[in-house]
């Protein structure tokens, strides 16, 4: 059993848990940290997908009450022909509506999207995402009369968020950043935009995870790899659970500007290091 390899897996799990739900690109950070510690190859690609599912499970746990009640109300609404469960039904429809654009793009262009995961694309995604965050927040986030309840979101607003989520197919752009910007444009307050982005991450990540896991060659798995996979999943879940709570609290008090500035600086530094040959990234 390779203890050093397992420790590297735990480090990547921590990185995923920290970065999945804040607007800085978990994919970009896992690629960078993976290069720094020598964690790469076919297993690493599958590992990154699985630990993202661990982070998504943190959403299910943190918001289990809301998810459970909404599922019950959704089917109650159907069973009572609309007499009961309107809130949960509307919430469910909003999640479905917001997921449609990414679902269509994923089904049609999944293989092509994966082929575009290059270091240059990740670097450009870091910088472009940071600039977009600054611009969209300045224009939209501080407007009055923002939606301040997740149950007050309309289907049109949900669809707008879903359209912006398509930006997340650009490696380094960040699914969280894309959906939060979509929320701003649609008229949601920042904390509600972030929370809604958590919920619509569930179908998006489960879909991509399922496809990648189905295609993976499990014949290469060893005891070390299985232990690494399990620990990475658990660590990303625990860290994401903590970070989500802190992130929402932060957004109630502070703007997103700091994340945008970080992205731009990190992207520029990474670009300089890559294009001068100081580091060589593989995606």
From TrEMBL:
Catalytic activity: di-trans,octa-cis-undecaprenyl diphosphate + H2O = di-trans,octa-cis-undecaprenyl phosphate + phosphate + H(+)
Comment field (misc): Bacitracin is thought to be involved in the inhibition of peptidoglycan synthesis by sequestering undecaprenyl diphosphate, thereby reducing the pool of lipid carrier available.
Topological type in the membrane: Multi-pass membrane protein
Gene field: uppP
Protein name per UniProt: Undecaprenyl-diphosphatase
Subcellular location: Cell membrane
Lineage: Bacteria, Bacillati, Bacillota, Clostridia, Eubacteriales
Location (main, coarse): membrane
Family: Belongs to the UppP family.
Transmembrane intervals: 12-37, 43-64, 91-111, 117-136, 183-206, 226-248, 260-279
Keyword Transmembrane: yes
Keyword Transmembrane: yes
Example GO molecular function: undecaprenyl-diphosphatase activity
Known role: Catalyzes the dephosphorylation of undecaprenyl diphosphate (UPP). Confers resistance to bacitracin.
Entries under Pfam families matching the protein: BacA
Keywords: Antibiotic resistance, Cell membrane, Cell shape, Cell wall biogenesis/degradation, Hydrolase, Membrane, Peptidoglycan synthesis, Transmembrane, Transmembrane helix
PANTHER family to which the protein is assigned, alphabetical: UNDECAPRENYL-DIPHOSPHATASE (PTHR30622:SF3)
Record-listed E.C. numbers: 3.6.1.27
Gene Ontology process terms (BP): cell wall organization; peptidoglycan biosynthetic process; regulation of cell shape; response to antibiotic
Any single Gene Ontology cellular-component annotation: plasma membrane
């Amino acid at each position: 059993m390779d203890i050093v390899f397992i420790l590297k897996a735990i480090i990547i799990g921590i990185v995923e848990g920290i970065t999945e739900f804040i607007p800085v690109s978990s994919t970009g950070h896992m690629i960078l940290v993976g290069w720094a510690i020598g964690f790469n190859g076919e297993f690493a690609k599958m590992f990154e997908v699985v630990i993202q599912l661990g982070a998504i499970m943190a959403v299910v746990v943190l918001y289990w009450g809301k998810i459970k009640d909404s599922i019950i109300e959704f089917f109650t609404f159907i069973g009572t022909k609309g007499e009961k469960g309107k809130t949960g039904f509307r919430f469910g429809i909003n999640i479905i509506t917001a997921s449609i654009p990414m679902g269509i793009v994923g089904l049609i262009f999944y293989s092509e999207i994966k082929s575009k995961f290059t270091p240059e694309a990740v670097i450009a995604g870091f910088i472009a995402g940071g600039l977009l965050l600054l611009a969209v927040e300045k224009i939209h986030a501080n407007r009055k009369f923002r939606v301040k309840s997740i149950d007050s979101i309309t289907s049109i607003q949900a669809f707008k968020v879903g359209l912006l989520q398509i930006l997340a197919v650009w490696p380094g752009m960040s699914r969280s950043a894309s959906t939060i910007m979509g929320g701003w444009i649609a008229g949601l307050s920042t904390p509600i935009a972030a929370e809604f982005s958590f919920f619509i991450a569930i179908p998006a990540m489960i879909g991509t995870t399922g496809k990648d896991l189905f295609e993976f060659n499990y014949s290469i798995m060893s005891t070390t790899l299985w232990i690494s996979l399990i620990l990475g999943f658990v660590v990303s879940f625990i860290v994401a659970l903590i970070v989500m709570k802190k992130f929402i609290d932060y957004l109630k008090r502070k703007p997103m500007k700091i994340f945008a500035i970080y992205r731009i600086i990190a992207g520029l530094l990474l670009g300089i290091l890559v294009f001068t040959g100081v580091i060589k990234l593989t995606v």
